[in-house]
Design brief:
Layout lengths: L1 H18 L8 H15 L1 H38 L2 H41 L4 H114 L4 H53 L8 H58 L3 H15 L5 H17 L3 H68 L3 H11 L17 H5 L18 H57 L5 H11 L13 H16 L2 H15 L3 H13 L3 H36 L2 H11 L3 H24 L13 H22 L29 E15 L10 E11 L1 H6 L1 H11 L20 E9 L2 E7 L4 E13 L17 E6 L7 E11 L12 E14 L10
Antiparallel strand pairs: 1-2, 1-8, 2-3, 3-4, 4-5, 5-6, 6-7, 7-8
Helix pairs in contact: 1-5, 1-7, 3-4, 5-6, 8-9, 13-15, 18-20, 20-21, 21-23
Length: 995
């Protein structure tokens, strides 16, 4: 049987190997047929002959073009050497020569193009013969190697098929005989098994009935013994309690009791022995039954084919043989593939070696390529040069440069020609400029000579006039002072504002002292030497006086600056004193504070204008300080003061009393500390009282109940009494905590009663009703609440926004309360307000979102009805007491920033960009003045964010929308709003934020 299976598996493996394709020929036999037809169409022999003729024509064209190019170059060189008149007559012949050369080049180009297109048209449709020839060679080699092996394997397979056919017929006959014998044995075996089972079933039923009867009798005995034992115990306890019988009776009773107990013990021993015997007998019967069951199949003859171990080993043997044959076949196939690849590689290596040798021989032949190229460039430069020897040398140098730079000779010649033309133009322009300058210099020199002659004539005339004037003054005025006075008063050359007769001013030395410039060494005429000391003395007096005046002026400037500083300091001090006076006047310490402040506010709606001082001049001075003080006050502070005064005026009398008491408490540090101590003591007292009442109540109930009642009560309540007590104590502590936070603590900021709408008043009422419900539920809470953010979920309209990215978890929930900022074009009443950002304070509402989501949804609309506080340190979210968790601002337009950091908690910073938005629901709460709600947003964090924050949601918005137009609006204004902010953390997702 094993030989049969092995033969079948070998035949299958050989068949698969025979069907395995040999080396693939590219694209099958059709490619070979197409290639043969294409090359037949090309007619390679005629194509080569035509190309040979075309090649000979190309060589002839090249020779003719070279000769004509040399002739044309020589004619061009001769033409350049001719003069302009001869060039006009010779240019026609030169143009004709150029036209002939161009026609030759055109014919040459046409013939080359036609030959190329003819060859390309023939060869474009023909496939590459190299892969086809290579595939043919490979297939031929493979067929030579595999044909003998395939013939041998075919003969072997035919022998295996004949052998397997005979073995299969013998196996089928044996199988039929064995199956008939197996059926007979199975029928006889089943009859015997049924007989044995029936006999043993009868035996077991009989024994089972015996055991049941014995068990029933033994149970009755045991019940009797237990009943007797209980009666004896009861009688014994009665006797013990009565204790009135004598000693004799007691001894007799004791003997009777001991006899009965011994009798019971003996019965119990016999019963135990009987049970042991029955158990041993039961075990023996079970053993006999097992032996009987095991002996029944062992008596029947077992066929070898039915043995599972034999069949398993047989199947494993078959699979191993099949795997062995498959591995052998695969090994032979791999060996053949490797042989074919090795032959292909050897053939490729031989081809590469041959190509390498050919290339090496070519390189050796072309070793003088650089020298030949250099010589060719020199010859070209000499042939095409059109100048003298210097030009030839320059052309040679340019050819050498062309070798290094890779430029052609034509490009170098064009560059050289352009350079010479530029130099010629520059020289011509410079020559014209030099000629123009030369003519200008000649004209200027002539004018200068004329001016020099005129100046010499005028100089001589002036000297003569001066000599005549000095001689006359010396004869008429012997005194030097009078000469000086007369000279200074009447001399035309020195009169103020006058010019000399000749139109030029004489030198100062000749005017003052009468010295002739031509006779410097001679003695001066007249009394001119006495004027110079007087002028020098006058100049010294002027200098001294000017120095004194400058000192006095600097001293006066210093005094003025000091006085100005003192005046400014006094003005500042007076302004500070006025501010303090205004501050003191608002409280009016002399009378009740509440009445004085209310009177002040009622008399003047603007709290920044308080009348201080009397009438007359002091009143005018105070008005001046009042104006200076009010000019320094910001418009926001003045507006806040007017709003505070109007709110105080609209208060009722009880509210004013409460407000006055509050101001009195917050007036000084001592009053604030005393009030804080009072609140702490009051809360501690409430806590202690409630805890004591709860403990006393529990102890009272525990003392009235017994142990059994306590156990029953604990079982009915589902836990031990200690758990109930701890739950009651925790609820007792949580209830006063919430109540004190919601009701007893002062709520800041105050409610805005003037802008509250009826719907918003209903929201506030609903909020406090909901808060009362939560406080009532905490009274029956059996465990302390847990702040688990995994339970928090955004409200249903937020589902219209894209959901948080996969893998992100909720990190923080906050209530934002602040303003939306807008700007307006005041010159255009129909302009639309433009949003510039927002500024808000964030309050931690994570625990509220986890435990009371319905209460969280009411917080934005309720907090909108409470005014914002002035200082950031004392901000609270009215009417709750949520702690501040961060701030929200816009450092630049369009870039929101969230800073989630306080003194105790560092959550992170988030720079964001808008991802998507939806309009707020139509039923969203309005703002204080009826403004609509701003849209709901989804933001994605950008670079610079910390705390692993990834996404931010703004939902449940209240107010914040700007009016439709800018009519009646200032250039910049704010609109109050409130919203919920949900922050998610996790790994950074793929962001597609549109800012």
């Amino acid at each position: 049987m094993a030989d049969l299976v092995e033969s079948v598996l070998a035949a299958d493996a050989n068949a698969q190997h025979a069907e395995k394709p040999g080396p693939a020929i590219p694209d099958g036999g059709n490619k070979f047929q197409q290639a043969i037809s294409a090359w037949r169409t090309i007619d390679y022999t005629n194509l080569i002959s035509n190309l040979d003729n075309t090649a000979s024509e190309i060589v002839a064209y090249q020779r003719d073009s070279t000769v004509q190019r040399k002739e044309l170059a020589q004619k061009t060189k001769d033409f350049r050497k001719l003069d302009d008149a001869t060039k006009l007559s010779e240019i026609k012949g030169l143009l004709k020569a150029y036209q002939t050369f161009i026609d030759l080049l055109t014919n040459h180009s046409k013939s080359i193009n036609s030959a190329f297109l003819q060859a390309y048209t023939s060869l474009s449709d023909a496939p590459d013969p190299y892969p086809l020839l290579e595939a043919s060679v490979d297939s031929m080699l493979v067929s030579e190697d595999t044909l003998p092996k395939l013939t041998e394997e075919n003969q072997h397979l035919q022998k295996s098929v004949a052998k397997l056919t005979t073995q299969l017929e013998e196996t089928e006959s044996k199988l039929q005989t064995e199956s008939a014998a197996k059926k007979e044995l199975e029928s006889s075996l089943e009859s015997r098994v049924k007989e044995v089972e029936a006999s043993w079933v009868a035996v077991l039923d009989e024994k089972k009935d015996n055991w049941a009867s014995k068990e029933k009798t033994l149970e009755e005995k045991v019940e009797n013994q237990e009943r007797l034992l209980n009666e004896i115990k009861a009688s014994y306890e009665v006797n013990q309690r009565l204790g009135k019988t004598d000693d004799g009776d007691q001894e007799g009773q004791a003997h009777v009791t001991s006899a009965e107990i011994e009798m019971l013990h003996s019965d119990l021993d016999r019963t135990s022995a009987r049970l042991a015997e029955i158990e041993a007998r039961n075990e023996q019967l079970r053993l006999e039954l097992a032996q009987a069951k095991s002996s029944v199949p062992s008596q029947a003859p077992v066929a070898l084919e039915d043995d599972p171990g034999y069949m398993r080993m047989r199947s494993e043997n078959s699979s191993l043989i099949r795997k062995l044959d498959a591995a052998r076949v695969e090994k032979e196939g791999l060996k053949r593939d490797l042989d074919s690849r090795l032959r292909g590689l050897e053939r490729e290596v031989g081809l590469l070696k041959e190509e390498r040798d050919n290339l090496r021989a070519k390189v050796q032949k072309w070793s003088d390529y650089d020298d030949v190229k250099q010589e060719l460039e020199v010859l070209k430069s000499i042939e095409f040069s059109t100048g003298d020897d210097d030009d030839v040398r320059e052309a040679t140098e340019s050819a050498a440069e062309a070798k290094s730079q890779g430029d052609t000779l034509e490009k170098l010649l064009l560059a050289r020609n352009k350079k010479l033309g530029d130099e010629l133009t520059i020289l011509r322009v410079s020559h014209q400029d030099l000629q123009t300058k030369l003519s200008e210099l000649q004209e200027e020199m002539s004018r200068t000579n004329m001016d020099l002659e005129k100046s010499q004539q005028l100089n001589e005339r002036l000297e003569n006039d001066l000599a005549t004037l000095q001689s006359e003054s010396s004869n008429a005025f012997p005194s030097g002072a009078s000469v000086a006075g007369t000279f200074n008063r009447y001399a035309p050359s020195v009169a103020p504002g006058r010019r000399p007769v000749g139109g030029r001013v004489s030198p100062t030395s000749s005017i003052i002292s009468g010295i002739n410039p031509r006779t410097v060494g001679e003695e001066p005429m007249g009394g001119g030497s006495g004027i110079l000391p007087m002028i020098t003395a006058q100049r010294d007096r002027f200098k001294k006086r000017i120095a004194q005046l400058e000192g006095e002026l600097s001293e006066s400037h210093r005094t003025i600056s000091q006085l100005r500083q003192e005046v400014s300091a006094l003005q500042k001090d007076n302004l500070n004193l006025y501010e303090k006076t205004r501050y003191v006047s608002t409280y009016n310490r002399a009378g009740p504070s509440a009445s004085s402040s209310s009177a002040a506010y009622s008399s003047n709606p603007n709290p920044s204008t308080v009348s201080i001082g009397g009438t007359g001049n002091p009143g005018i001075t105070m008005d001046r300080y009042r104006k200076a003080y009010e000019s320094n006050i910001s418009p926001f502070a003045a507006f806040r003061g007017r709003e505070s005064a109007r709110a105080y005026k609209r208060m009722s009398f009880p509210e004013r009393v409460v407000y006055s008491v509050t101001r009195m408490v917050l007036a000084s540090r001592t009053s604030r500390n005393l009030f804080a101590a009072y609140c702490v003591a009051l809360h501690l007292l409430v806590f202690c009282s409630l805890y004591w009442l709860g403990t006393v109540d529990v102890e009272k109930h525990a003392s009235n109940l017994g142990k059994s009642a306590a156990a029953a009560a604990a079982a009915g309540a589902g836990g031990p009494p200690s758990t109930k007590t701890s739950n009651m104590r925790s609820a007792t502590l949580l209830v006063p905590t919430l109540a004190s936070l919601a009701l007893a603590a002062p709520t800041y900021p105050t409610l805005n009663l003037h802008s509250a709408l009826p719907g918003n008043i209903e929201d506030i009422s609903e909020y406090f009703n909901m808060l009362a419900t939560k406080v009532q539920a905490l009274k029956y809470l059996s465990a302390e609440p847990v702040c688990d953010l995994t339970k928090a979920k955004m409200v249903s309209p937020a589902e219209d926004l894209p959901p948080p990215s996969a893998g992100l978890t909720l990190k923080h929930v906050a209530i934002g309360r602040g303003t939306q900022n807008y700007t307006c074009d005041t010159s255009n009443a129909t302009a639309v307000p433009v949003a510039t950002g927002a500024k808000a304070t964030l309050f931690n509402a994570s625990c509220v979102a986890a435990m009371y989501p319905d209460l969280l949804e009411k917080l934005p609309s309720v907090s909108m009805q409470f005014n914002l506080t002035d200082s950031d340190e004392q901000q609270r979210l009215g009417p709750s007491s949520l702690a501040i968790s961060g701030h929200h601002i816009f450092p630049t337009t369009g870039v929101p920033f969230f800073q989630l950091a306080t003194d105790g908690v560092e959550i992170g910073d988030a720079w964001c960009a808008k991802n998507s938005s939806i309009a707020a629901p139509t039923m969203a709460a309005k703002g204080q003045q009826g403004e609509g709600a701003v849209p709901w947003l989804k933001l994605l964090t950008t670079a610079g964010s910390t705390g692993n924050l990834q996404e931010v949601y703004r939902i449940t918005t209240v107010g914040g929308s700007a009016p439709a137009t800018c009519q009646g609006q200032p250039a910049a204004f704010e609109v109050q709003y409130a919203a919920e902010y949900w922050f998610y953390q996790g790994k950074a997702p793929v962001k597609s934020a549109a800012s």
